[in-house]
Design brief:
Helices cover about 80% and strands about 0% of the residues. With about 475 residues, it is mainly α. Helix 6 packs antiparallel against helix 7, helix 8 runs antiparallel to helix 16 (about 370-395) and helix 15 packs antiparallel against helix 16 (about 370-395). It is globular, with a radius of gyration of 22 Å.
Length: about 475
């Protein structure tokens, strides 16, 4: 399967999953309000960090070793044993400190937290195995199906009046479903690992664990710090703005997930320099979706947040900043992905260390001084710092060129799209009352996306070639 098609399958699957999550979040926001969503966001933030403690980079190590193609069953079995033991340790720790956990969140959630942590740990492990087997095109739809199961369970339980408990139980059910289906797809049969298999995983994980912290720091450290400074309501609004921003980063994630096993295999067979073309592709298309998303999100921030309810409109200030942070971060992630793929997790370790320290310090200082806007600013600045460091290390070991011209074309198309969307909003807004806000936003987004991709198709030969090369069949008269 061609890499572009794999990325598209991943992206389309994530689009479907995000659409499900988007609709579910709207329902929860309007039914339960921002305070309950704030409690839920705090629980998921704790899950993010506790699952890191329960994996410490092991899932990334499993993907790397399995992707190399040798003794796969032994590595998967070793990874399962390690994750099981670490997960049990985390569960015991949460149980012992359940009173402190409940006090931080503001609700009695410790027992649910344990179940979610275990479900997420094993779901992450088996998803990493699927990626290691080069089955990204299967892992992605399964991830969407998992989200569908989770959302269906959550909505059903909320309808029955379970509120926050329903959200948490539904989350567990989605994770359990993903684990069962992953094992069934792989038809996995355990094979007894040796000490060498554990050592090999450790050799990679001892550096890649900081990469796990990097992702978790970027995703959740602002929520964790906000939990100490602001009440649950604003946290709920901020988490919705962040979720909306993450929707735009799906294509960047699709590229990094699709390219990692290919880079890893090529680098293992040849040398690190042989992946330079893939690195340039990753940078050229990493911002394909999020670039116009930043322009559109800035122009429509108030109306986008109003979809969730009037109480969420206050999040319009942080939404553009968070999208900008994700745009910077997606390029950073492609470069770190490259370092890990060429088996230089030590360099990714250093780059991640700089990013993490910067992010944590800035979040504490700026949230203390500026509140939730400070959290968004801290996220953007730390992403920029991380990008500079990652570029320094990646460019020193892989001879790639920055695709400046291609990125400039994306910005040209996005700015043209923004001008059209702005004009359409000014013309159409007086005729659209609040009850039709969602329909108005969907119409503007659809028109804007059409203008952006049509413009880019005309001005970018690289984009045209990529599209035509990855179509399932030849389309006559399509220019290249």
């Amino acid at each position: 399967m061609r890499l572009g098609q794999t990325s598209v399958i991943f992206f389309v699957s994530k689009i479907a999953g995000s659409a499900i999550g988007f609709l579910a979040t709207i329902y929860f926001a309007r039914t339960l309000g921002e305070e309950v969503l704030g409690f839920y966001a705090l629980v998921l933030a704790l899950v993010t960090w506790l699952t890191f403690i329960g994996s410490i980079g092991w899932t990334g190590a499993v993907t790397k070793r399995v992707s190399e193609g040798n003794e796969r069953e032994e590595y998967v079995t070793a990874g399962t044993i390690i994750i099981g033991l670490l997960g049990l340790s985390v569960a015991i720790g949460v149980f012992l400190f359940r009173e402190q956990v409940n006090a931080y969140v503001g609700q009695p959630v410790a027992e649910f937290l344990i179940l979610i942590v275990l479900a997420v740990l094993f779901r992450s492990l088996w998803f990493s195995v699927l990626k290691g087997y080069h089955l990204v095109h299967i892992y992605a739809p399964l991830s969407t199906l998992k989200l569908g199961v989770r959302s269906t369970a959550q909505i059903s339980l909320v309808l029955l009046g379970f509120g926050l408990t329903g959200l948490l139980v539904g989350y567990v059910l989605g994770g359990v479903f993903a684990v069962i289906v992953s094992i069934a797809i792989l038809r996995f049969r355990p094979s007894l690992p040796t000490r060498d298999h554990f050592s090999s995983l450790f050799d990679y994980a001892k550096f890649s664990w900081l990469g796990s912290i990097r992702g978790r720091t970027f995703d959740q450290v602002d929520i964790i710090v906000l939990g100490f400074f602001v009440p649950a309501g604003p946290i709920g609004i901020y988490s919705v703005a962040w979720t909306l921003s993450e929707f735009l980063d799906m294509f960047g994630r699709a590229i990094s997930n699709s390219l990692f096993p290919e880079m890893s295999e090529i680098a293992a067979q040849n040398d690190p320099q042989s992946v330079s073309g893939l690195v340039e592709d990753a940078l050229a298309f990493g911002g394909l979706i999020i670039t116009p998303g930043l322009v559109g999100g800035t122009l429509l921030a108030d109306r986008l947040m109003a979809i969730y309810g009037d109480g969420f409109v206050a999040g319009q200030t942080v939404l553009p900043i968070l999208i900008a942070a994700l745009l910077i971060y997606t390029y950073n992630k492609q470069l770190l992905n490259t370092l890990n793929a060429i088996d230089r997790p030590d360099l990714a370790f250093r780059a991640n260390g700089v990013f993490i320290v910067t992010n944590v310090v800035l979040n504490v200082v700026l949230i203390w001084q500026l509140g939730w806007v400070g959290a968004a600013i801290a996220t953007a600045i730390s992403a920029a710092v991380g990008l500079v460091v990652a570029y320094h290390y990646a460019s020193s070991h892989v001879p790639f060129s920055l695709p400046v011209a291609e990125i400039a074309r994306q910005w040209t198309a996005a700015i043209g799209m923004g001008a059209a969307v702005y004009a359409l909003r000014k013309v159409g807004e007086p005729y659209w009352i609040a009850d039709y806000n969602a329909a108005f936003v969907v119409a503007l987004v659809a028109v804007g996306a059409s203008i952006y991709f049509a413009t880019l198709f005309v001005i970018s030969s690289r984009f045209r070639t990529t599209v035509t090369n990855n179509l399932p069949s030849d389309v006559p008269f399509l220019p290249t």
